[in-house]
């Protein structure tokens, strides 16, 4: 979480530290990404199980039991890890189209750290009065701002290709995160009613 804040406040300094540390995929995953996702997921779980979600249209609240909220957060955690790994693989592939040879560890560092502001913005969704799409928009804009300096530093593309790689990577992550947000928002708004029996049955198996 501290690294996520530093990337927002002092992105050049934070990326410099990340570059010199040269951490592997396992370290970035277990020391940075997972703790950040678990922290924001726990906060979101508390918000859903305490206040619920405001449905658009008529002003009413959709309530969630602690078990239902936990199942949603587990699914959200899986989606978030999918964004990180799929995004890293696609950005590595993008780098190769720009005549670069990059390791997966490089692209994973870019995505895992670059998406930190986006994941951190989930804390703003703690209260149901905060529109999830507004939080997504602010988070992805912060991520794009952070990636502007992170991609050239970590991926080390040829200077003529640096901006193109940044632009395509930003568009790619915007699309992936937007798609995941659309799916999760549809569930929260009650538009995926066919999934509810499965969520309820899994929630009943939890000890709370």
Structure description:
The chain is an all-alpha fold and 208 residues long. It has one domain. The chain is 75% helix and 3% strand. It has helices spanning 2-9, 11-21, 25-51, 66-97, 104-114, 116-120, 132-155, 159-188, 196-204; strands at 53-55, 60-62. A two-stranded antiparallel sheet has the order 1-2. Strand 1 and strand 2 form a beta hairpin. Helix 4 packs across helix 5 (104-114) and helix 4 (66-97) packs antiparallel against helix 8 (159-188). It is elongated.
Short descriptors:
single chain, mainly alpha, two-stranded antiparallel sheet, 9 helices
Structure in a nutshell:
With 208 residues, this protein is mainly α.
What topology does this entry show?
Layout: H1 2-9, H2 11-21, H3 25-51, E1 53-55, E2 60-62, H4 66-97, H5 104-114, H6 116-120, H7 132-155, H8 159-188, H9 196-204
Helix pairs in contact: 1-2, 2-7, 3-4, 3-5, 4-5, 4-8, 4-9, 5-7, 7-8
Count of individual beta strands: 2
From the spread of the alpha carbons, the general shape counts as elongated
Number of separate structural domains: 1
Strand residue percentage: under 5%
Query: What's the story with the biggest beta sheet?
Result: 2 strands, antiparallel
Strand order of the largest sheet: 1-2
In angstroms, what separates the terminal alpha carbons?
28 Å
- The SSE order reads HHHEEHHHHHH
User: How much is the radius of gyration in Å?
Assistant: 18 Å
- The number of helical elements comes to 9
Structural class: mainly alpha
**Average pLDDT for all residues:** 91
Uncertain segments = none
What is the share of helical residues?
A: over 70%
